[in-house]
Amino acid sequence: MNEAAESPRQFTTPHQAPTAWPLTTGHQHEVANTLSRTPCPSNDGLDPSVVMDQSSVISNSVPLEFAYVVYDSTSIMSYFAALLTFWPFVIGVGLLVAFFSTGELWICVFGSGQLFNELVNHILKHHFQDARPPGSAKTDFGFPSSHSQWCGYSAVFLLITLAHIPWRRLTWVHRLGAVLVVALCVATPLSRLALGVHSETQVYGGVAIGAVMALIWFRFASLRVCRLALELLACFPGLSWTVGPIVG
């Protein structure tokens, strides 16, 4: 009995944990006060303000709609259709490289018309607010298709320009490049149908609007006041105006 009085903790088995000492009311209040004064780490020790900032960034994250594409990984045709999504970017980069390497102002005419064409596309999309086909991975408005309108403008403006240049003045590089550009401008709108991100009306409407924009912009660039302005710009070092007079 003396041994039991000396040690209230007893072990029934080697694996059993010892019985805790009973806490008095005073001890309970002391432990509670100690725990209340101890800072409790939140989110694995991260600063709550940092966690909130990260959460806001995640909640505000959206895909870049212009390049966002989902394709069937089991289909080679779907893969190439997805690659054609970036064709308008290639055209834009190609125009920049061509301008900075040659200084030809007609390239600026081409590019500025393309930017205006893109602005018109943005306005029309928000005017019609036409939804994309059911199941599309993209959620923005679908009519007119920006890819199709971009390609429609590029192909028609290029063809009009080449039609005004004597065939003998074009090298085989120019001819092959023109055929390749036009072919890809035809394939890209079709790829939007294959990927299911646009309806036929949205695609064909985009091509038609882009073609009309090319005709309007070419006519605008052919105005005498525009040509005089471009001729004055050609006086600056590094700029040239060689294609414009031929086309006019």
Q: In summary, what is this structure?
A:
Pfam families: PAP2. This is PAP2 superfamily. This protein is mostly helical and 248 residues long.
Write down the Rg: 34 Å
Low-confidence stretches: none
Cα shape: globular
Helix content: 55-70%
Question: What structural class do you assign from the helix and strand content?
Answer: mainly alpha
Structural description of this entry:
This protein has 248 residues and is mainly α. The protein has a domain at 89-247. Helix content is 63%, strand content 0%. The chain has 11 helices and no strands. One of its GO terms (molecular function) is sphingosine-1-phosphate phosphatase activity. InterPro entries: PAP2/HPO (IPR000326), PAP2/HPO_sf (IPR036938). This is PAP2 superfamily. The chain crosses the membrane at residues 79-100, 147-165, 172-191, 203-221, 228-247.
Q: How is the secondary structure organized here?
A:
Blueprint (H helix, E strand, L loop, with lengths): L1 H5 L18 H13 L10 H12 L16 H8 L3 H16 L2 H24 L17 H18 L8 H23 L5 H22 L2 H10 L9 H5 L1
Helix pairs in contact: 4-8, 5-6, 6-7, 6-9, 7-8, 7-9, 8-9
